[in-house]
């Protein structure tokens, strides 16, 4: 069906169908109902603090692998882990709400960090989950040392247009990669789009860095408002590449920008 939607140039419409279908996924309302969905994956180890905990995007191709190249640049410097988004694997429960997701991820993250300082980082649509997580942590009095947002966008038709070609390849199984595409991944993406459809981020106390790609995606070149933005207090830095390549062939540059900011904050 997704391949047919791509052939008909109706992928956005099909994604709406996935969002509707996601309402019939079995759900969890607390982390106690999960069995391994939120196991943290360590990608790099180093002595500097705070450690980085990354949140994947909500696209169907989501997973810890999104941060493999980014994390490689931190080896022997700073620990980097990935806190998964549940619901992308067969048999996994899907969050009943944004609040249920944030509370469950907060439980898993605090168990992983064990009281050590940490910062939260997210690329693309992972920024929505990261923001909800930071708010939940701060409500507990256990907020992160920092929040790093890498080329984040609020849900919109313009944002979807920019990623549609990459999404089409990934969803139909045509893009280079190793993830099998199945109903769980497709409906999870649709479900997260549904949960965050009205995302309007409120301020958080955590010092925030916005890392912006220097180049627009091809679908955005005609406009002048393509650059990622964050409405609340933050520092900003630009890094080589576009929305996707900044985490792929330019991942080391992106990591270097994040490391300079974190190191400067620690020194300060």
Overview of this protein structure:
There is one protein chain. Residues 174-178 have low confidence and may be disordered. The chain contains eight helices and eight strands, in the order H-H-E-E-H-E-E-H-E-H-E-H-H-E-E-H. The protein is globular, with a radius of gyration of 18 Å. The protein is an alpha/beta fold and 268 residues long. The longest helix is centred in the last third of the chain and has 17 residues, at 251-267. Strand 5, helix 5 and strand 6 (146-150) form a beta-alpha-beta unit. The chain has a single domain (29-154, 199-267), classed as Rossmann fold. Helix 2 packs across helix 7 (183-195) and helix 4 crosses helix 5 (126-139). Strands 2-5-6-7-8 form a five-stranded parallel β-sheet, with helices on both faces. It has helices at 2-7, 11-22, 68-72, 98-113, 126-139, 157-171, 183-195, 251-267; strands at 27-28, 41-55, 78-82, 94-95, 118-123, 146-150, 208-213, 235-239.
Write the layout of secondary structure elements.
Blueprint: H1 2-7, H2 11-22, E1 27-28, E2 41-55, H3 68-72, E3 78-82, E4 94-95, H4 98-113, E5 118-123, H5 126-139, E6 146-150, H6 157-171, H7 183-195, E7 208-213, E8 235-239, H8 251-267
Parallel strand pairs: 1-4, 2-5, 5-6, 6-7, 7-8
What is the level-2 CATH architecture name?
Answer: 3-Layer(aba) Sandwich
The shape is: globular
Write the H/E string, N to C.
Answer: HHEEHEEHEHEHHEEH
Helical fraction equals: 25-40%
Query: Residue-averaged pLDDT, rounded?
Result: 91
Q: For the largest beta sheet, what order do the strands appear in spatially?
A: 2-5-6-7-8
Segments where pLDDT lies below 50 for 5+ residues?
174-178
Structural classification: alpha/beta
CATH superfamily: Alpha/Beta hydrolase fold, catalytic domain
Number of separate domains:
1
- Continuous helix count: 8
CATH class term: Alpha Beta
């Amino acid at each position: 069906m997704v391949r047919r939607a791509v052939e008909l140039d109706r992928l956005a419409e099909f994604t709406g169908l996935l969002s509707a279908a996601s309402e019939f996924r079995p759900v969890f309302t607390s982390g106690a109902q999960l069995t391994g969905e939120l196991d943290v994956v360590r990608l790099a180890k180093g002595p500097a603090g705070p450690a980085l905990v990354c949140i994947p995007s909500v696209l169907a191709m989501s997973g810890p692998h999104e941060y493999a190249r980014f994390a490689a640049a931190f080896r022997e410097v700073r620990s980097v882990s990935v806190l998964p988004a549940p619901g992308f694997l067969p048999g996994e429960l899907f969050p009943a709400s944004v609040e249920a997701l944030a509370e469950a991820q907060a439980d898993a993250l605090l168990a992983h960090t064990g009281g050590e300082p940490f910062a939260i980082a997210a690329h693309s649509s992972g920024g929505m989950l990261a923001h909800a997580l930071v708010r939940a942590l701060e409500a507990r009095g256990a907020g992160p040392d920092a929040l790093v947002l890498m080329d984040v966008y609020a849900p919109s038709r313009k944002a979807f247009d920019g990623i549609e070609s990459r999404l089409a390849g990934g969803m139909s199984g045509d893009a280079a990669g190793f993830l099998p595409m199945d109903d769980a991944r497709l409906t999870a993406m649709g479900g997260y789009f549904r949960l965050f459809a009205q995302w309007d981020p409120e301020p958080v106390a955590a010092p925030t860095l916005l890392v912006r790609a220097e180049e627009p995606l091809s679908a955005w070149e005609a406009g002048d408002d393509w650059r990622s933005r964050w409405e609340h207090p933050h520092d900003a830095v630009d890094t080589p590449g576009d929305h996707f390549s900044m985490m792929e062939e330019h991942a080391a540059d992106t990591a270097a920008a994040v490391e300079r900011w974190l190191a400067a904050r620690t020194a300060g």
